[in-house]
Amino acid sequence: MSISSDSSGVIREGNLQVFFHDSLTRTAREQRLSANDATLHYLTHLLTDFAHSERLFDHTAEGAQLRPLATLYGDALTAGSLRERRLWLRRLGDLALFVGGLFSGRLSRRVCDLGYCIAMGGNAYSYLHDTASGDKRDRALGEVFGELADDFARFVDLLAAVTHHSRTDGQDLLELYGRWLETGHPSLARRLHTLGLATGSSALVH
């Protein structure tokens, strides 16, 4: 299946959702990964959102940045309410899962970083599962977070397989960012700066 676009060349959100959902369902079956439909729908929306770089990167005075997982965790620890803490941890879990999948080939050569990414994301989702309220929607999301926490590494593998076969502008930017994370080469940093992405202290996995 290909992703269609309108006459301007812009990929429509609905097309992305259909593409990612079909790819996730097919790849999960191929990998013999048992996942509830609700979990696959959650991952579909995650991939659709993060395919747009403005939804993935935080925009600061220094430019667009990927915030380190440790910084997100620190924000969660100092949150003023349970609701705020859960929002930070959901961002952490989503980011760890997406970036772990997208950069799995590189992170696997730095086992400590990949293990850290998996541990941080898995623990964040586990907390979200354990603190879900009795509200019907919250309980349903809690079950999704529980499934993601219990098999986080395999869901990283699932997203790695799907994103490997689906390149979008935002993901191409991440590919360049991943090469810079691995090598630190100045020419890659200059290209990122040209695209509006700050390097400096913006490395994700600390």
Task: Count every helix, treating DSSP H or I runs of 4 or more residues as helices.
Answer: 11
Task: Quote the beta fraction.
Answer: under 5%
**Helix-strand sequence:** HHHEEHHHHHHHH
- Average pLDDT works out at 80
Number of strands: 2
The whole-angstrom Rg is: 17 Å
Q: Widest sheet: strand order? A: 1-2
Shape: globular
Number of domains: 1
Note the gap between the termini. Answer: 37 Å
Low-confidence stretches: 1-11, 108-112
Taking the sheet with the most strands, its summary is: 2 strands, antiparallel
Category by helix and strand content:
mainly alpha
Helix content: 55-70%
Task: Write a structural description.
The protein has 206 residues and is mainly α. The chain has 11 helices and 2 strands. It has helices at 13-30, 37-50, 53-56, 69-77, 82-102, 104-107, 111-130, 136-150, 152-164, 169-183, 186-194; strands at residues 58-60, 63-65. β1 and β2 form a beta hairpin. It is globular and about 50 Å long.
Outline of this structure?
The chain is mostly helical. It is built from eleven helices and two strands, in the order αααββαααααααα.
Secondary-structure blueprint:
Blueprint: H1 13-30, H2 37-50, H3 53-56, E1 58-60, E2 63-65, H4 69-77, H5 82-102, H6 104-107, H7 111-130, H8 136-150, H9 152-164, H10 169-183, H11 186-194
Antiparallel strand pairs: 1-2
Features:
206 residues, disordered N terminus, globular, 11 helices, single chain, 2 strands, mainly alpha
